[in-house]
Amino acid sequence: MKKILLAFSILLFFASCMENDGDIQENGQFPLGNWTISERHENGFSLIRTGSLPENTYGFSFQKNGKMTVRAIAGWCGTPPVVYSDYSGNWSNAGAALKLNMGFWGGRNVQEWKVVSSNDTGDIVRIELVSSETVPD
């Protein structure tokens, strides 16, 4: 019996140490928290974790319950001075994909993101925009 218990303990230890390649974490890592776009790329963008959503900046706030807030431009005109507003939405994950359904001034954006990479601390995440659909009001 002791050998079985020891073998089970060792197996459990190694299983808990395995990394979850590409999966989106729900234990305080991405996407939970507040994020702003730090850099735009050809097929996506990089997000940086912030303590709160800064004023007059595009950003995302993800909650554990699958709800989210998007801070985005409040109207169709992007000519400065630009005014920002908060829009509600929801998110879910499926392995390495993050599915978002978020509001904007003209309706809803339905997007799918893929996490391409992140730094060691998880405070900077590079996202590939897999799909994007605009649903007007």
TrEMBL record:
Protein keywords: Signal
Q: Which residues form the signal peptide?
A: 1-19
The keyword Signal appears for this protein: yes
Name under which the protein is recorded? Lipocalin-like domain-containing protein
Q: Which organism is it from?
A: Belliella marina
